[in-house]
Specification:
By secondary structure, the chain is α+β, with helices and mostly antiparallel strands. It is 29% helix and 24% strand. Strand 1 (17-29) and strand 2 form a beta hairpin. It starts with a helix and ends in a 20-residue tail after the last helix. The chain binds adenosine-5'-triphosphate and manganese (II) ion (MN).
Length: 461
């Protein structure tokens, strides 16, 4: 394989022949010379091929090249006299590999993100989406590196599950029954015993319960996979299909979990900052001018840590009129979270110790009997980016919580088994991967940080 543009640009010096393959960002045809800006997606920068009359097929082919054409340019790598580019290629040959029809939608002018979403098959060729996809890739690598450096084992949790164990959100049903004529039982209800899995089955909303199984065997595991929620949230921070990272750690309590979450975000930011310098500089210049300062801030500054009770006190003392009233016992709404992290503290914030009435049954009950060892990490612009907890590992307490929430104990038989056979304190969290990419890039809408967004009313391609 030939060098990618990223590799060519990283050469120590000019000289020698290179072959550049890619697509034309722009083509400018001056009197006796054509300037062709070629990109191949391997980095933010493209490379300019300069072709004059000495270039093969200059009049017949090169002069007709335009934005979007796929080309192969061969020539000498020389130092560029132009600003902002180290090298350019003095082309002796430029081959048209694939032409473009006149209605190519990505002409020079900038397009709205709304429009680009309608052409998901072409938008990765824009500067912005290209940069997003490289940052996603670097973040994904950084996550795997972070966990592997700390002895975590990646666990592949299932996409199809039978339980809505967590109650984390509305679920998508998985079924092979004929929707127009499903089999019925004696009461006339749909008979899922005749369905593929012989029980109602769904797409997963979280890999947490499986991760707990893993942690209680391998000590430290993480899952990183697609997650589905059928909630009708048409917001800039919700997708119906998103990727979630869920570490789960045995012999770990809530403070250890908060430390892990902070180390994790700092480490991922540091690695992506190093790998994607140009992409992040682009986001800072073109999308949100706080991207680079946020990056430095997340890496260097300790996160703030407060309890839910303190959060409520701060909100009540703020004198601010919120749409949703603040009172101890009610969940923090996105407006409250953003006030705390953006305005009050101006930095990432870890909130722990939520009222047990608003949290899931599996969260560890604190000694005060009022709160559970839950933890959310809130960041400016996004709000909640991580949600997690220490898990209830005491069998009697867990059973009481299941009963108090009116859940069917039989369905949790295996979850309860884990508390009967060598139970240990353990804790874990879930990070929404797209929210992380949003936070890093400054992109306003979560639909623009995943290549193929799935949202209510739209899963087109
Ligand atoms: P929110 O209150 O913001 O809807 P949640 O409390 O329902 O989130 P959790 O069940 O705690 O979310 O999931 C863990 C993480 O997954 C969240 O902190 C968030 O980063 C991410 N997440 C949750 N729902 C979505 C979604 N619909 N789209 C993208 N990311 C999501
Ligand atoms: Mn949450």
């Amino acid at each position: 394989m030939d060098e990618l543009i990223r590799e060519i640009l990283a050469r120590p010096k000019a000289g020698g022949e290179v072959t550049v393959r890619g697509w034309l960002r722009t083509a400018r045809h001056a009197k006796k010379v054509s300037f062709l800006e070629v990109f191949d997606g391997s980095c933010m920068a493209g490379i300019q091929a300069v072709a004059g009359p000495e270039c093969a097929r200059f009049e017949e082919e090169v002069r007709g090249l335009g934005t979007g054409c796929a080309v192969e340019a061969v020539g000498e790598l020389v130092d560029s006299p132009g600003q902002g580019q180290r090298f350019e290629v003095h082309a002796r040959e430029v081959k048209l590999v694939g032409g473009v029809d006149d209605d190519y939608p990505l002409q020079k002018k900038r397009h709205s993100f709304e429009f680009l979403r309608t052409i998901a098959h072409l938008r990765p060729r824009t500067n912005t989406l290209g940069a997003v996809l490289r940052v996603r890739d670097a973040a994904s690598r950084a996550i795997d590196d972070f966990f592997h450096e700390r002895g975590f084992v990646q666990l592949h949790s299932p996409v199809i599950t039978l339980s809505d164990a967590e109650g984390a959100g509305d679920m998508f049903r998985v079924s092979t029954l004929d929707p127009s004529a499903p089999p019925r039982d004696d009461q006339g209800a749909v008979d899922y015993k005749q369905d593929f899995f012989e029980a109602p089955s769904y797409l997963t909303v979280s890999g947490q319960l499986e991760a707990e199984i893993g942690a209680l065997a391998l000590s430290r595991v993480y899952t990183f996979g697609p997650t589905f929620r059928a909630e009708n949230s048409n917001t800039s921070r919700h997708l119906a299909e998103f990727w979630m990272v869920e570490p789960e750690v045995a012999f770990c309590e809530i403070e250890g979990l908060a430390d892990l979450a902070e180390d994790f975000l700092k480490s991922v930011f540091r690695q992506v900052g190093e790998k994607c310098e140009d992409d992040l500089a682009f986001f800072d210049a073109r999308i949100d001018d706080s991207v680079l300062s946020t990056l430095a801030h997340v890496i260097e500054e300790p996160f703030e840590r407060i309890t839910y009770t303190e959060a409520v006190e701060i909100l009540e003392a703020s004198g601010r009129k919120f749409e949703f009233p603040v009172s101890w016992g009610a969940d923090l709404q996105s407006e409250h979270e953003r006030f705390l992290t953006e305005e009050h503290f101006g930095k990432p914030l870890i909130v722990t110790g939520y009222p047990k009435g608003i949290k899931a049954f599996y969260m560890y009950c604190n000694d005060d009997q009022q709160t559970v060892a839950a933890m959310d990490v809130l960041v400016p612009r996004i709000g909640e980016i991580i949600g997690g907890s220490q898990r209830e590992h005491r069998l009697d307490v867990l059973k009481a919580r299941i009963a108090a929430q009116g859940l069917p104990e039989e369905e949790y038989w295996w979850y309860l088994d884990l508390r009967r056979f060598g139970s240990v304190p353990h804790a874990g969290f879930g990070l929404g991967f797209e929210r992380l990419v949003q936070f890093m890039t400054g992109m306003a809408n979560i639909r623009d940080v995943i290549p193929f967004p799935r949202v209510p009313g739209n899963a087109s391609f």
